């Protein structure tokens, strides 16, 4: 039989979907599982956005669009992204994609060359597709450790120490998946000071959770002096408007936008025509529903962190954004005799009926940082209360 390529054989994955498949199989078998593993809003897309999609269908908006996206959505995204970041963004510098995720690969492909040792620095722990796509695109992944003592920001001195003549791209993610940590304006100013000494490095600013911030004001490195032209701003409709399945993302950079268009043409042709019109309504229509969802996530954050900090052997920092909690379970693992967070995760799933993700699903465990698991608190208050109670009871019952 013909063989698959090494690139395909070694391609990484997003473990939230792997664990979700395990959860669905257990539920199919009749097991009672409370799941915190998938990172998507548990709300329906607002009705006005649904109605805009139906209207687009009825009006025959079924065909291809320009690869860059329909002009109406590019203009709406440019205005919205610019307003949030204090920038004047030209719609011609915005490209619409089938979700925000493709722009990770497009950005790596546009800034590195295959097999020549070009390096990409990315946060660890971090969204697993960063490392996966760096490798698949033939670049060299360089992890930059996030530390609990810094509220899961990184030390700019560590960033500078990892920069080499081969560094081509730095990936930033704030608010952050999986920790919920944020980069403050001061953090970003310190990072920008480092990068000004290295003018040949591009920045990929993954800001998909930019509107789900719970403390302070959102800050983007693109808004700092000298950073806009070298920053790829990545955002989208999925998290703010509960539109994960609609697959609409947008990215902006004044230099790379035309290159992104060519990559879209070579891959997806264009994002869904219908979804693009729905996203226009999301950006331009009433914002009461997304504000209500954000307020609900904030209340759930406070609920789950308070509950987790009462679980034996668990401590949890208060995340500044997104909808993830990243509790330290080092002591809990010791108490029940689990060798690490992955064993704890498996036992929670199979013995307690609680589905979470382990830190190793987001990169190699950071030395000295202990054991962590991730809860997505895009779940009801009842599920949060019941799930954390199950975890607490499991630890108490199994402590040695």
CATH topology of the largest domain: Aspartate Aminotransferase, domain 2
The major beta sheet can be summarized as: 7 strands, mixed
CATH class of the largest domain: Alpha Beta
Overall structural domain count: 2
How would you characterize this protein structure?
The structure is a single chain. Helices cover 41% and strands 12% of the residues. Strands 2-8-7-6-5-3-4 form a 7-stranded mixed β-sheet, sandwiched between helices. A 3-stranded antiparallel β-sheet has the order 9-12-11. The protein has a two-stranded parallel sheet with strand order 1-10. It starts with 5 loop residues before the first helix and ends with a helix. It contains 14 helices and 12 strands. Helix 3 packs across helix 10 and helix 4 runs parallel beside helix 10 (273-284). The chain has helices at residues 6-9, 15-28, 47-58, 71-85, 102-111, 128-136, 156-162, 185-195, 257-267, 273-284, 288-308, 330-336, 341-352, 381-398; strands at residues 34-35, 94-97, 119-124, 140-145, 167-173, 202-206, 231-236, 249-252, 324-325, 354-355, 357-358, 373-376. With 400 residues, it is an alpha/beta fold.
Short description:
This protein has 400 residues and is of the alpha/beta class.
Essential attributes:
single chain, 400 residues, alpha/beta, Aspartate Aminotransferase, domain 1, 2 domains, seven-stranded mixed sheet, three-stranded antiparallel sheet, 41% helix, globular
């Amino acid at each position: 039989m013909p063989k698959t390529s090494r690139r395909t054989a070694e391609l990484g994955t997003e473990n939230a979907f792997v664990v979700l498949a395990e959860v669905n199989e257990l539920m199919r078998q009749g097991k009672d599982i409370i799941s915190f593993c998938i990172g998507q809003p548990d709300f329906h897309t607002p009705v006005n956005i649904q109605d805009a999609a139906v209207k687009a269908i009825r009006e025959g908006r079924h065909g291809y669009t320009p690869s860059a996206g329909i002009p109406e959505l590019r203009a709406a995204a440019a205005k919205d992204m610019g307003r949030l970041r204090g920038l004047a963004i030209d719609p011609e510098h915005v490209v619409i994609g089938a979700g925000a995720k493709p722009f990770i690969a497009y950005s790596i492909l546009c800034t590195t060359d295959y097999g020549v040792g070009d390096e990409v620095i990315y946060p660890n722990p971090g969204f697993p597709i960063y490392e996966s796509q760096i490798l698949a695109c033939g670049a060299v992944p360089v992890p930059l450790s996030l530390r609990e003592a810094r509220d899961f920001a990184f030390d700019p001195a560590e960033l500078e120490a990892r920069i080499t003549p081969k560094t081509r791209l730095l990936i930033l993610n704030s608010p952050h998946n999986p920790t919920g940590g944020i980069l403050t304006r001061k953090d970003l100013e310190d990072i920008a000071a480092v990068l000004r000494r290295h003018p040949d490095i591009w920045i990929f600013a993954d800001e998909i959770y930019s509107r789900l911030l719970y403390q302070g004001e959102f800050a983007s490195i693109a808004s700092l002096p000298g950073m806009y032209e070298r920053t790829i701003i990545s955002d989208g409709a999925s998290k703010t408007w509960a539109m994960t399945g609609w697959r609409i993302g947008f990215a902006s950079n004044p230099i790379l936008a035309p290159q992104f268009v060519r990559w879209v043409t070579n891959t997806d042709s264009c994002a869904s025509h219908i979804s693009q019109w729905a996203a226009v309504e999301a950006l331009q229509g009433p914002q009461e529903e997304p504000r209500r969802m954000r307020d609900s996530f904030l209340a759930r954050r406070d609920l789950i962190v308070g509950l987790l900090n009462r679980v034996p052997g668990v401590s949890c920092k208060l995340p500044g954004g997104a909808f993830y909690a990243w509790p330290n379970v080092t002591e809990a693992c010791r108490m029940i005799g689990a060798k690490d967070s992955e064993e704890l995760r498996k036992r929670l799933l199979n013995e307690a009926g609680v589905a979470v993700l382990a830190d190793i699903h987001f990169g190699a465990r950071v030395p000295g940082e202990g054991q962590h698991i991730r809860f997505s608190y895009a779940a009801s208050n009842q599920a949060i209360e019941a799930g954390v109670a199950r975890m607490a009871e499991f630890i108490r019952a199994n402590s040695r």
